[in-house]
Amino acid sequence: MIVGVPKEIKDNENRVAIVPSGVMALCDRGHTVLVEKGAGMGSGIPDEDYARAGARMIENVADLWAQADMIMKIKEPLPPEYTLMRHGQVMFTYFHLASDETLTRAVLDSGIVAIAYETVQLPDGSLPLLSPMSEVAGAMAAIVGANYLAGPHGGRGVLMGGIPGVEPAHVVVIGGGTVGTNAALMAAGLGAQVTVFEVSINRMRYLSHILPKNVKILYSNRHSIEAALADADLVIGAVLIPGAKAPKLVTRDMIKLMKKGAVIVDVAVDQGGCIETIHPTTHANPTYFVDGVLHYAVANMPGAFPRTSTFALTNVTLPYAIKIADLGAEEAMRRDPALRLGLNAYKGKLTCKGVADAFGIEYHCPEEVLG
Which residues belong to the active site? Predict the structure, then answer.
C-alpha cells in the first residue's frame, strides 16, 4: 500500500501523523510511505530522518494525495484539501464530524473511506486513539486556565494555588473521563480547590480513589452545576459522547451566574462543545469574552505541544495503520471490531450513528457496507 502523510495546514497545527520509526516499520513490510517535505519540522523531525527511514519526500502535496492509497493525518481535512480527496481513498485521522456538517457532506461527496481516530473503541468502551490526546488536553486545560486567570489577560487575577491566608482558585471540571481526570489532577497539583462533575457512579468511585483530597466528586445535574458555577474561577468542559455532539450542559443563562473575569476552557469544542456560548478558536486567536467571562476554545489544543503529542499519538495509531496497510481497510475492519467502530463514512455512505443523528443524514451500519 502507498501511505501518504501530508503536512498539517490547520492554524498552528505542528503535529505530524507518522514518525521515522513508523516509516521504517511500514517500509519493512513492503509498503511505500510518502511524506510531504517539512511535515515533521514542527515536531522537531527533519526531512532527513524520514528519508533515512525509507520515506519518499514529496514537494507537491497534490502529487502526494494523488498517489496515496491511504492518507494519514492528525486533523480533519480542511476546505483546501476537499478537492484532493478521491473516491475509495482511505483517510485515517481525527474527523470530529458531528461538529461540522460542511465537512461531513464533503467527506460523503468525495467517497473516501473515513476512519476516525476518535471513534476506534475497544470492547471495554475505551478509546485508544483518543486517550493520549485527551491526557495532553486535560493537563493543558488547567495550565491554560491558570494562565488566563491572570489580570493582564482579562482574568480575575486569582492565583491557582493561592498563598497562606488567601483562598486558592475554585475550579469546576464537567466530566470525569480522561480529559476531566487529567485536568483535575493538574489543577489540584497547582493547589486549586477542584470540583468534578460526573454521571457514572462507578467512575465517581474510581475518581474518589485516585484524585487527591482537594478534589471533590459530585453527581452531575443542572442544579449542582449552577451552584458551582457561581463560585467558580475556572470551568473546564470535558464531556465526550463518542462520535456525537457534546451535550450543552452550561447554558447562556448559567454563564451569567459566573463572576466577571472567570475563565472557561471547553476541551469538548471539537465535538461542538458542552458550553452553549462556545465556538472554536485558534492558537493564533484563542479567546473571546461573553458576559464578562473569558472563553478559550482552541479545537486542537495538543498542537501547542507538538513533539510530546506527536510521539504519544503515533505510538497508538501505528499498529492500526500497519493493519490497514497489510490487510486493506475493508479486511482490517472486518477482522477488528474496534477499528470497525472507527469507520465514519464509506464511499458516500455515513456509518457513524451520532453524526447521522446530528445532521439528519441516512445512517448505514459498518457491517452492512463492509459486507
Answer: 96, 270
